[in-house]
Amino acid sequence: MSARTALLLLLALAGALALAILLPLAPLRALFAEDSDLARLLLVELRLPRAALALVYGATLGACGAAIQALFANPLASPDLTGTTSGAAFGAVVTAYLLGFSAPLALSIGAVAGALGALLLLLALAGPKAETATLLLAGLAISALAGALTTLALALAPSPFAFYDAYDWLMGSLIDRSLEQAAFAGVPALVTFALLLRLAPALDRLALGEEVAQSLGDNVARLRLQVICLTALGVGACVAICGAIGFIGLVAPIFARRLTRGHPGRAIVAAAMIGALLLIAADLITRLAPLGRTLPIGVVTALIGAPFFLWLVAHMRWRLGS
Amino acid sequence: MMLDASGLSLPGRLYDAALRIIAGELVCLIGPNGSGKTSLLHALAGIGGVPGTMNLEGVDPRRLGPAQRPALLTYLPATRDIPWPLTARDLIALGGGDAAFETLELAPLLDRRIDTLSTGERSRVLIARALAPRPKLLLLDEPTANLDPLWQIRLMELVRAQVAQGPRGALVAIHDLDLAERYADRVIVMDKGRIAAEGMDRVAEIFGVERVDGRWEAVRTRADPRSSP
Lengths: 322, 229
Description:
CATH class of chain B: Alpha Beta
Oligomer: heterodimer
Radius of gyration of chain A: 20 Å
CATH superfamily of chain B: P-loop containing nucleotide triphosphate hydrolases
Order of helices and strands of chain B: EEEHEHEHHEHEHEEHEE
Helix content of chain B: 25-40%
CATH topology of chain B: Rossmann fold
Number of domains of chain A: 1
CATH architecture of chain B: 3-Layer(aba) Sandwich
Distance between the termini of chain A: 33 Å
Structural class of chain A: mainly alpha
Number of domains of chain B: 1
CATH superfamily of chain A: ABC transporter involved in vitamin B12 uptake, BtuC
Helix content of chain A: over 70%
CATH architecture of chain A: Orthogonal Bundle
Largest sheet of chain A: none
Shape of chain B: globular
Largest interface: A-B, 21 and 32 residues
Distance between the termini of chain B: 49 Å
Radius of gyration of chain B: 18 Å
Strand content of chain B: 25-35%
Structural class of chain B: alpha/beta
CATH topology of chain A: ABC transporter involved in vitamin B12 uptake, BtuC
Strand order of the largest sheet of chain B: 5-6-7-3-8-9
């Protein structure tokens, strides 16, 4: 990624953040005229955490997507298609039943454990150098399993309130999260991002193939474990606060690698920025769409991401010549 | 002695192999499929473990990280698959080499993506990735596979020339017995995971081929089912 591209992405990100905090402008301006304290409260208590969460969650999905795509040497390995997000959701729902949704630390730990379980299961099922078909099948199986277990947990909900809370949270939402909750997602996400950046050169060398990477002095087994644990930490912490949001982790790295001449490790930074940009944009759409109500953000990312995914599959099929 | 390695074992694949290479030596590694050629190269490159002892000019390169190791040894695997569409220039740079590497006539290929190259062209790029850091020890697995006859000869001469510069050595696993005989200073024959012989004397026994009128032919023995018409 050239310095100019990086600067443009940063500017776009700053612009999107400003829009996310200020839009829609009309009610904000009206409120400022009426009661500026309340308006300030709205900015700090509602819009700021929401924008911050979109930034953090989008960046985490992008960075983790790029890292596990590099790890599995496969452009379709992403947190949602590998079952990581559904594993995290299952872990969080179970924890929520035991301890309630008001214990963010326990929720985070449950989600991280669920994500880790899903990724380790994927590694065991699909193997370290996963063929696309094996990877997708294993990911599908894990998603289905985690989904079924989550549904089972919902069916066994201890009370209608617990059921509704869990259901609402599962839809994925950035709304009504406090700054404290944003920090519960943000701190692990930041740790994940910083440590993934340190692994980026090794992930680039992994592009030469596992044998060559080892012959160059990389400990590939350790690298694999590090990437999986970090992805589980970052994605798990975000899912615990905001629920599962799909497709960003698939799409952002694919765009990012176009900016890094195909380097999978170097793409982590760009993927984080693009992921954040995409999620902030998707959140703006949920707010500004003229439907008279707020759309669930997972629906928006899926509506944008699923056609892209279909295009990608068609493109890969065409390129493989089958 | 430039390289002195011993006690190289990988479970089920390689049994207590030991070898020495002196400076300027090009050693060819021959042996039937599954005889352990790749395993021996893996053991020396530190792939899948760090077995035995290895001394390359005073250090065990397998204990070094990515910053130092390419200057000491590089390894070319038999596979030519690269998962990401990188350019040839970037691939060579990732391997720790200088992309301005001026052999193998790569100039027209350098800025093309690896997935748009033919198999032979891709082989040349990946060979350049291994040669470019100019390591003390070159470990090449089937470098001539996919290359046309002219490039096979050019490559072996290039490896010869590089090994001759400075205290360097090369260990090249190769199936073409003629190329091995022609370019190797020494031939090591592997069989069933062990170093079985040096030189070409036991080729007939180990491979089941023999030279008849200047060509390699299957040995016609009484018990070999492959020799039945």
